[in-house]
Design goal:
The chain is an alpha/beta fold. The chain has helices spanning 3-22, 51-54, 57-60, 63-68, 70-86, 91-99, 116-120, 176-188, 204-213, 240-251, and strands at residues 26-31, 105-110, 125-127, 130-137, 143-144, 163-167, 191-195, 218-221, 234-236. It binds nicotinamide-adenine-dinucleotide.
């Protein structure tokens, strides 16, 4: 498609999304790694820059991997945290924060562990996969105030176990309260907005399916079609920054 065709398609898709959002009272948003890509944080599956293209997930993001080599895992996450600490929310994060107050109910379920939605000012953020900005006890799971900084070996919890990053690893359960809240709010909402997720990782795929079962329209924002696109009523083929800025502008009073 030529540039003008793409522009027209973008314009049309944003217009349809704005119609759905303008009449919505209850909105659920779910975001994945693509949301933060334009803040300079690589996604998992991006072939060129994706984190797992360079590192083995079994080694770095499982309990077994941590048990085998706690220092490697701790320091790899310390490095990721250092990248994330330099990152700033982009205008798309800010646009989501700005539209939140216009709705009676607004829930933002993010798979990202980078804290950028909160940094942008979003209030009702549920961090499904935890946060790299926090640490917790490896054995008991209780939270710790110890920051995730490079060290020869991970610091110890007061109970003697190692501390670990407070993120959900492969093979670990998500907080069941978060999943219940997602199920309830999706069933009762007027629009589900899915931004920057490949739709391959549970639970994002399940969210869109639940919305479709409940008759809730789904808007997807992603520069590439995904397995979720077939479920979307509106597919905005674009990066999160441009699409969300444009949506927020058109939703603003006087636009
Ligand atoms: P993913 O890597 O599987 O997929 C990323 C998706 O983002 C792809 O569909 C890609 O087409 C899309 N994308 C790329 N650029 C984009 C842009 N500019 N705007 C919008 N979308 C864009 O990521 P996932 O589906 O979120 O699942 C993988 C897991 O990775 C998640 O559980 C998440 O916790 C974790 N993760 C988080 C971060 C972070 O916190 N920023 C970073 C990497 C991975």
């Amino acid at each position: 498609m030529n540039t003008t065709g793409r522009d027209r398609q973008f314009d049309h898709a944003v217009a349809r999304a704005v119609v759905l959002l303008a009449r919505a009272r209850r909105v659920v948003v779910t975001t994945g790694a693509g949301m933060s890509k334009e803040s300079g944080i690589p996604t998992f599956r991006d072939a060129q820059t994706g984190l797992w293209a360079k590192y083995d997930p079994e080694t770095l993001a499982t309990r077994e991997g941590f048990r085998r080599n706690p220092s490697l895992v701790w320091n790899w996450y310390a490095g990721r945290r250092a990248i994330i600490e330099q990152a700033r929310p982009h205008e798309g994060h800010v646009a989501l924060a700005r539209i939140e107050p216009r709705f009676e109910s607004f829930h933002l379920f993010t798979q990202n562990i980078d804290g950028l939605h909160v940094a942008a000012g979003s209030k009702n953020v549920i961090e499904l996969h935890g946060s790299i900005l926090r640490t917790k006890c490896f054995d008991a799971g209780h939270p710790s105030r110890e920051p995730l900084r490079e060290a020869k070996t991970p610091p110890r919890c007061s109970c003697g176990s190692f501390l670990r990053p407070d993120v959900v690893w492969f093979g670990e359960m998500l907080n069941p309260d978060h999943l219940d809240l997602a199920a309830d709010t999706i069933e009762a909402c007027d629009v589900l907005l899915v931004v920057g997720t490949s739709g391959l990782v549970y639970p994002a795929a399940g969210f869109a399916e639940a919305a479709v079962r409940a008759g809730v329209p789904v808007i997807e924002i992603n520069p590439e079609p995904t397995p979720l696109s077939r479920l979307a009523d509106v597919m905005i083929l674009s990066g999160a920054r441009t699409a969300l800025m444009e949506m927020e502008q058109r939703l603003s009073p006087g636009a």
